[in-house]
Amino acid sequence: MKIGIDKIGFYAPHLFLDMNKLAVARDVDPAKYTIGIGQEKMAIAPITQDAVSLAANAALNILDDKDKEDIDFVIFGTESGIDHSKSAGVYIHDLLGLNPKARTIEVKQACYGATAGIQMAKGHIALHPKSKVLVLGADIARYGLNSGGEATQGAGAVAMVISADPRILALEDKSAYLTADIMDFWRPVYSDTAMVDGKLSNEKYISFFESVWEDYKVQSGFGLEDFTAICFHLPYTKMGQKALRAIYEQGTEEDKERLVANLEASKTYNKQVGNIYTGSLYLSLLSLLEQQEELQDGARIGLFSYGSGAVGEFFTGVLQPGYRKYLNTYDHEELLASRTELSVDAYETVFEDTLPADGSTVELEIESDPAKIALSGISGHMRHYVHKDKK
Ligand code: HMG
């Protein structure tokens, strides 16, 4: 039985910052951000968007009534959780009106969370072929104003329906994974910004990739010639280039050209959004599918997932016949094109406009946020969300 991605959608908040302008404000050569880091724009979340609302907005665009009835497992990968106890997925289950006969959980392992969700979903469908699983990855990447990681922030969400007989990508069974206890990036519970050893994180990302790639080759007998494209977790788009460069000499000149060209297409959306942590690899996959018109049905795509701390995994999928019909390219291009640009001053104000951390009540102005689902306030230590179409 084939199991894989039947639907995929994404959402980014309506505000962005131009990386050239951030560079000027930080007295950095703009080419460092646009070429050295490989980012053009950075999505900025207003106070009315958190991981829950971002993920709910991403899912809203892909689910129909049949999906809402068939989904019996919601798995939300995030490292921007809003509660130590209650799963962020439960809010989404309600906001989307899903069938109550469902399991709902939140999973965490830095940017690897959504991949863990997909692998769990695959096992669930193998046992229950008629069910569907909603896998979500949503985050707001915050390192701090003027910090070393500032140019690699971002915000957004990806939602995927995993099912039997998927219409987009069938996941193959072989997979190579690795865990090692590393302090390359983490966020203690008392901090709303991440701690990071940037150089170590880059090194570990590459060494994890090399290690799982070698393991995968031994398991599968495949080499670069068997792949049309390889998609990467993209904390910033140059990272994908660095990782591919570590292995592309293993193939012919033709393999190298094909993989480099497809990597370019897979970076298109990420360049305009920034790091969305758990959803990043899947935003890159979506970007490849929607921005590379030459991809053929039956193409094999490699996927490298990396979550600091650290867990890495390399797995693969095969594009299904007619997959292009099930994409929402126009909507996604429109979502990115219709955003509002912030000045650097305005970005700093939005960045510092955070929710109270002491349990006090707050009511938020949601009218200026065009998202259908938004955080409207906090009272009694509870977050309240509004689904504008459900009023
Ligand atoms: P930095 O010190 O600002 O930058 O840190 P740099 O000095 O290393 O320069 C970056 C690149 O720009 C270099 O290229 C420079 O040569 C180039 P490279 O050697 O890397 O190929 N450069 C220029 N290029 C053109 N024109 C110029 C110019 N100047 C310099 N004028 C760093 C960069 C990414 C480390 C920092 O932003 C950071 O710490 N970011 C956060 C950590 C991160 O993203 N790590 C990635 C791997 S870990 C991961 O992916 C997991 C993560 O997503 C978290 C999770 O799992 O939850 C982060």
What can you tell me about this protein's structure?
By secondary structure, the chain is of the alpha+beta class. It folds into 2 domains: 3-169 and 327-390, Peroxisomal Thiolase, Chain A, domain 1 (3-Layer(aba) Sandwich), CATH 3.40.47; 172-322, Thiolase/Chalcone synthase (Peroxisomal Thiolase, Chain A, domain 1, 3-Layer(aba) Sandwich). It is built from 12 helices and 17 strands. It has helices at residues 19-25, 30-37, 51-60, 65-70, 88-95, 113-127, 198-220, 237-247, 253-273, 280-291, 329-337, 344-352, and strands at 3-11, 15-18, 41-44, 71-77, 103-107, 132-141, 154-164, 169-179, 185-186, 195-196, 229-232, 300-307, 311-319, 340-342, 362-363, 373-379, 382-387. The strands form 4 sheets. Strands 5-4-6-7-1-8-13-12-11 form a 9-stranded mixed β-sheet, sandwiched between helices. A 3-stranded mixed β-sheet has the order 3-2-14. A hairpin with a 3-residue loop joins strand 12 (300-307) and strand 13 (311-319). The chain is globular, with a radius of gyration of 20 Å. It starts with a strand and ends with a strand. It binds 3-hydroxy-3-methylglutaryl-coenzyme A.
